[in-house]
């Protein structure tokens, strides 16, 4: 009887999630995440220089150390490739950051997550979650629950491709419900994602070095990214924040982005999302608008956006960029002035 009740409870949670616009929902025992610890150790061994960064995620494999009452994990997937993107933004800013629902409290995806949490509360189910980064290894949990699979570029895919959000909740109930998918694995000889990676951070299938990733470099984690001393500055090319190169090259993503829906606030901000305008922007705008939207860069490091923008200008230099460079040479932030002098030297201009 207890097993039948648990099956019914799991199915009801899944039904509620699907009614809230999630495409998939599964529930797995919390201890199944131990495999993530093995995966993380293997990656640290492969990329020892990234140890400090990677070790931050060790707790995602053992959530019961922080939440000893946790018994199961609810994990859900929802497609975000149905949002409209202004034409100049793909290739400049990563798509997931353009439609990031994690702090966009008027976004349907954010509201759906809170509605599911309200349902869990109404059912008397204790839960823990962290919408920004999660409390467990999301991709591994979603794969274990049968929602899809992790491909060679390390991104999680459903039948709709990799443009999907994953969200998970630790719960105090012993429940289990798995989906079955018919996804085919990556062809063994396919290397399109690795060939497309601008900085060669995809060293081999299912392995990625954060220290070489164009996206991670653009976030400026920690003290920021000083492009003047970064050997990969030119390789980053036109990416100002984030990078979608490996996902865009993937055959399983071809034609997957549908567009159509408007993401709250994106159209109003889009015109200001150009490298030239960001270089010229005042810091009030960068702190209040860009750091709120692209929150991996905190307001106190808002100068990182200008450093990234100057790197993009340098990598695709045009004479029309001269006024923006002149503005940067007189910027109130010393790091920006240093970067502007570096760009001027690269372009044979007086800095």
Structure, explained:
- This protein has 351 residues and is an alpha+beta fold.
- It folds into two domains: 2-171, no CATH class; 221-238 and 271-346, no CATH class.
- The protein is 38% helix and 8% strand.
- The protein has helices at 2-19, 34-46, 51-54, 95-98, 108-122, 138-144, 192-196, 214-219, 245-249, 266-270, 275-280, 283-293, 303-315, 322-329, 334-346, and strands at 24-29, 72-79, 127-128, 149-150, 156-157, 164-171.
- A four-stranded antiparallel sheet has the order 1-2-6-3, sandwiched between helices. The chain has a two-stranded antiparallel sheet with strand order 4-5.
Question: Features of this protein?
Answer:
15 helices, alpha+beta, 2 domains, globular, 351 residues, 6 strands, four-stranded antiparallel beta sheet, two-stranded antiparallel ribbon
